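Q: Start with the shorter request: fold the first protein.
A: Done. Sequence, then structure:
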Amino acid sequence: MKAFVYEYGEWKLKDMPDPKPGPGEVVVALKTAGLNRRDLYIPARRGDDKEAVVIGSDGAGIVESAGEGVAGIKEGDEVIINPALRWYEQSAAPPEEFDILGMPDNGTMAEKIVISAEQIEPKPEHLSWEEAGVLALAAMTGYRALVTRGRLKAGETVFIPGAGSGVATYLIQFAKALGARVIVTSRSEEKRRLALKTGADRALETGEDWQAALSGETVDLVIDSVGEATFSRSFSVLKKGGRFVTFGATTDDRVDFDLRTFFYGQYDLLGSTMGSREELRDLLRLMKEKGIRPVIDSSFPLSRVEDAMTLLSDSTQFGKIAIRITGV
């Protein structure tokens, strides 16, 4: 099979042996995969002295074969990959055995993947193959941050700095589906326009005075994945007693903020990452009920994953980047 790998310090498209299912495993012939920012970090995290690892956390395809002991799944089933490995029930934090698909395990940027049958879910019928292939990681991250950790309620207002990421596009749609008001920010006029089209109620320019712009608004919840560049500014627009959820740091991962203001304001500061299978199933039901579809910026064939990675690295995309593998 063809696979896109990182090997001995190089990205490459490589011929690799077709995988075989062991007990409790299935082989999925992948049609599409999704690129995520974590894929960009693999060289720094893996080093330059190791054999090939297939990158990619998201994917969708058709079950090709199943190993001994697999029940309820058959050849020909259309499925999506759940990249949150070994985290099945919603819990306060992931279990010790939790990991994310796509390093150290071989991931989804390949014509086939062998994976535990516990890590696949039926493909949503209302989604195309490209939409299904970019779904799980960003949607799970956004849903857990918004619903499980952020405890969003209908009628509340959520503030999301950085409107163009894949997670942000899910956050906007999930929040609106749950009856909330959504305010986003972006430097890009085009991203602000697209955020409003996706469902946001307001879209602020990153450089403007957020406190002045939001005079009269009550922000109940902030979901921030930017980090140092927006952290303190986001706190400045949050109501006293409000909730602040962070799940990423695309800028510096260290921040300074005023502890006295924080504890006098009675704020809740919450960390979040990925999500459990239970939360994935909950969000899939919400997407089906509300007709929510992933926002796709662009798609590339497997032979052009490096071009897709350049686009993601430049942060000019709005929504997800899909990788076409076979038959799409």
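Q: Next, the second protein, separately.
A: Sequence, then structure:
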Amino acid sequence: MFDWSDLRVFLAIQRTGSLSAAARTLRVNQTTVGRRLAELEQALGARLFDRLPAGMVLTGAGEELLPHALGVEERALAVERAVSARDSAPSGVVRLTCVESLGSRFLAPRLGELHSRHPGLRLEVLTGSHVLDLTRRESDLALRLGKPVEPGLASRKLGRMGFALYGTRALLGARPPVHVEDARGIPLLAFDESLAHLPESRWLAKVMGEAVPVLRSNSTSVLFEAALAGLGLAVLPCWLAEGSGLMRVGAAGEGVEREMWLAVHPDLRRVARIRAVADFLAGLIAREGPRLAGASA
């Protein structure tokens, strides 16, 4: 008889495609993942994955096991959510996912207020462009730029975030461009191709034509620091750029806005610790609303 927890290992490998990535997801070492998979395969008497150069690929036996493993996972998570919902005090771990710039430069300096209110909370802030799955408890709360599209989530709009084009005074000269299009020819900084789908990336490509950026990055923080150093113009969140010494390019209304949404699994939204963090975020964003939206966005 196999250990039911080995199914978590099986699903992690299937979702990530490798032992090392599964180990990072499960927060264990790669040796443990390999051992647990071997034990599961021995217990079932079947090889579940083919180890190919491109990664771990399900065998026929693995394909047959997959829907059953997903069903067990969903039932286990439902039990976990039901038990969590009985919490009465805002204490324990809450995992929040958001984009890197929001987490490091906006939220982190303000989390002391949350800790003062609820010292029993332990917050984990996970940043990056990868969207974590709330239904599988990869995260408890998600602060996203754009309305969540996954089915079955409870979400609410918290506010707006404005983006505009910024550069140093030295780069823009004594007479800064009146309109964004007038800045064509000035060195440009932009997101890399992996983030070309973002509204701010599409807007920049539209207004700057065929300009080739001198720097591309998947990090807002990298673009911000490069813009501060005078390397080029960058589309940045207004709350990040204003007051930094950078000058805004273009007139009021020349920029782009994105909606800020908070998402949670509906079974967890009444859990005290999660509700406490959600209420804090909603209040913080409402209070900082004009700054986040950009006074001239």
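Q: Describe the second briefly.
A: The first helix runs from residue 6 to 16. The chain is about 40% helix and 20% strand.
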